[in-house]
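for the recovery benchmark. tokens below, seq after
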């Protein structure tokens, strides 16, 4: 009882799946993806095993069509299932069982499959496909646009409750935790798509801070500072971004600017003073006692 989309980005090969439903924690059931293999949405009267089993079959050399056929053949409940699959080459397969609750259906094109059931109208899945194809931007933005289009076309007949998005890299690194480009869930919300979009923005801000950490560790403080500046732009008011940017500014000798920024952070959450005073013992960002006193000496 859900609408979802699976897709492969032709520009960089990323694989993704996104979903919205009037069902609690839909992301724990519907969304499956593996770098270098494919992405799967399993829904309607969902059998969650379709996700890992489809990925295992494709990983073992089955085509996307053969993987889906094998799952359906082995499932006595196939007429109640709805599935969309895309593989690492952009091949797609989809199934809407005859017993899925109307309005129900799917639409496919090269590298993308959109599917929905128990919808208010039969315009939902065509709208998802069309919007995905017409939207510019990265894969996450295009998936979100497709979900918005589904909602605008009528959405789930029961309303809204949860949403999720999973995007993985084109090629496996052998370390799955590094391959997850986006892994977000909204388990219970009155406006799950708005919350999913907010979380995606926050994640992008934190990815910029991670980039800043890497540049600082490599000794490129200018690039690190630029990354934190961009993180602050993406996440206005983020204490995390402001704190570490203040540290970088102080390390570059911009102590007055750093002190003003740190004071604003500490005013909102005094615990940051404690964090700052703990840094010299760690060696993080080269923070020493003199820098701590320069920033926090008057904060206690």
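predicted aa per position
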């Amino acid at each position: 009882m859900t609408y979802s989309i699976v897709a492969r980005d032709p520009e960089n090969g990323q694989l993704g799946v996104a979903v919205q439903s009037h069902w609690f924690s839909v992301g724990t059931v519907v969304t499956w993806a593996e770098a270098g293999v494919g992405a799967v949405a399993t829904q309607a009267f969902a059998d969650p095993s379709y996700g890992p089993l489809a990925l295992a079959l494709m990983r073992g050399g089955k085509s996307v069509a053969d993987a889906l056929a094998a799952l359906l053949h082995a499932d006595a409940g196939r007429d109640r299932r709805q599935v969309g699959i895309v593989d690492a080459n952009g091949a797609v397969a989809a199934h809407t069982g005859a017993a899925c609750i109307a309005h129900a259906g799917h639409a496919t094109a090269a590298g993308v499959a959109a599917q929905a059931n128990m919808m208010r109208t039969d315009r939902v899945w065509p709208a998802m496909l069309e919007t995905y194809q017409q939207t510019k931007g990265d894969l996450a933005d295009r998936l979100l646009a497709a979900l918005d289009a589904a909602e605008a076309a009528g959405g789930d007949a029961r309303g809204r409750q949860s949403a999720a998005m999973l995007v993985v890299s084109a090629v496996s690194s052998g370390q799955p935790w590094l391959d997850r480009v986006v892994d977000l869930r909204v388990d219970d919300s009155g406006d799950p798509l708005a919350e999913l979009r907010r979380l995606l923005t926050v994640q992008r801000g934190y990815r910029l801070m991670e980039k800043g950490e890497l540049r600082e560790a490599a000794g490129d403080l200018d690039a690190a500072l630029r990354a934190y500046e961009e993180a602050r732009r993406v996440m206005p008011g983020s204490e995390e971004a402001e704190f570490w940017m203040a540290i970088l500014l102080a390390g570059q000798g911009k102590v007055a600017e750093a002190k003003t920024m740190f004071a604003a952070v500490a005013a909102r959450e005094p615990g940051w003073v404690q964090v700052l005073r703990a840094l010299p013992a760690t060696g993080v960002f080269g923070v020493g006692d003199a820098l701590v006193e320069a920033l926090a000496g008057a904060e206690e």
